[in-house]
What does this fold into?
Amino acid sequence: MAEFLLPKLGADMSRGRLVEWVKKPGERIARGEVIAVIETDKANVEVEAFASGTLERVLVEPGDEWLPVGTPLAVIGAAAGTAAAPRAAEQPAPRPEAAPAAQGRARATEAPPKLPPATAAPSPTNAPASRALTPPAPPIAEGARLRVSPVARRRAAELGVDLAALPGTGPHGRIVLADVEAAARAAVEERQPERPAPAAPLTAAEQAQEKRARVRAAIAAAMARAKREIPHYYLGTTIDLTRALAWLAAYNAERPVAERMLYGVLLLKAVAAALREHPELNGFWREGRAELADAVHLGVAISLRGGGLVAPALHDADKLALPELMRRLQDLVTRARAGSLRSSEMTDATVTVTSLGERGVEAVYGVIYPPQLALVGFGKVVTRPWVADGRVAPREVVTATLSADHRASDGHRGALFLDALDRLLQEPESL
Amino acid sequence: MALGRAAVRRAGEDVTLAAYGASVHKALAAADALAAEQIDAEVLDLRTLRPLDVGALVASVAKTHRAVVIDEMWRTGSFAGEIAAILMEQAFDQLDAPVARVASAEVPMPYAKPLEDAALPSAEGIAAAARALF
It folds into this structure.
């Protein structure tokens, strides 16, 4: 049996509102199926089940209440057909919680728990106020292993709580489940100092304004964290796109309008292929170290009509053929603007790609979306005088930029990445 | 009675007291004592050891995150050790504290009643073992 918790769909999400249960109690659920629709500060997201099983009961009904990340929403039972299920059926357990549950293994939506670096010694002064009644934990010596109970470690990974900064209140100063949950609650309360008073019904204009304010607050939290924690370095290079655009024009000329590709797809594919060659830029920074991702999931920055932006993931962009990538991109943009993204799309992106070329900008030096390691930006495609073989000729060029986390990679590596991007875009037919 | 089916004799949220035989009554007494201290203990009567109701043990610990296993055998080589090992193997990520064992003193069982009581697990000993987990 596993609790289905309100997932954290991106670094800027601290709370969510349950819009709708897509599955009803008693229904079978396969891993990856949409189970509920959650409203975040930015968008409505279709949340996928992280484990197969049966939706046993829902703990929260759809409503207007904002729930902190990590709130249990439902109980998912062991998948029918496993050894535990028939036994549970033939003889009712004394309490629902006591049913055999070995198969209902919860899989956290975040990465599996990793040992945090045991360097930061928590001082009693920075302990949350809510823990004032319990004695402060003995300071942990530099380099000592943190004492954390297994369930506390797992829950901290689920809730995104930093164990190194927590006081432990268990025996021997061990960090226990209650400490992690108290810290998560304190963090949520800190972010929402007061609950909005139930006022008179808002007008449509006020609601739109409030929605915009929430979108800005969510973006503000993520971007402030990025600039506070991530030592960015920025590189830029101008790439000659003449060959790529000529190839694309020839490709599109042979096809009906519906199958034509945008040059942006070439850029995305080239970024994905270049990341394969330079994996140091593809992944996440978690608990003091870089976790490189095996797959390349490009987060595509999409501006929303009401303001703000989202960067949902194009999964396995490096493995998709160009026409398929084009279809997926169109689908993603349509759904992002309609507000029907999947939870995996909100959390899986391993690197973000942004383009402001359509707005006439020549170069974008973006802010990395934590916990990602890099962001690739493209400006406007312009015709410029270009010197090749000692002669000046007009060429179509674009400025590609890289913002990268200096903790995970160095400028040299970033330069090699941009060089690979340039090289790949000179051979569009092999993309 | 179904073999291999444990019974929850008292439902609780904070710690699982797993026992069998006469120890179940001591575990219930310990749970009463713990309730006075705001520790809500669940008493699981294992009923049969082989087959053992591993599912009920794991489900209970998944709820309480702490376990005390009570066994009248000598501590070394006792069945309590087997249960502790199973919980470690199958419920590791649910544990908030090490699994505690309460077993008999490792002496030949004394004949005199006061000494026999002192050698066997007691309600006070079970409560103390549970308290030490918090």
Remarks:
- Chain B touches chain A at residues 2, 5, 7-8, 11, 53-56, 58-60, 62-63, 65, 90, 92-97, 132-134 (CB under 8 Å).
- The longest strand of chain B covers residues 67-74.
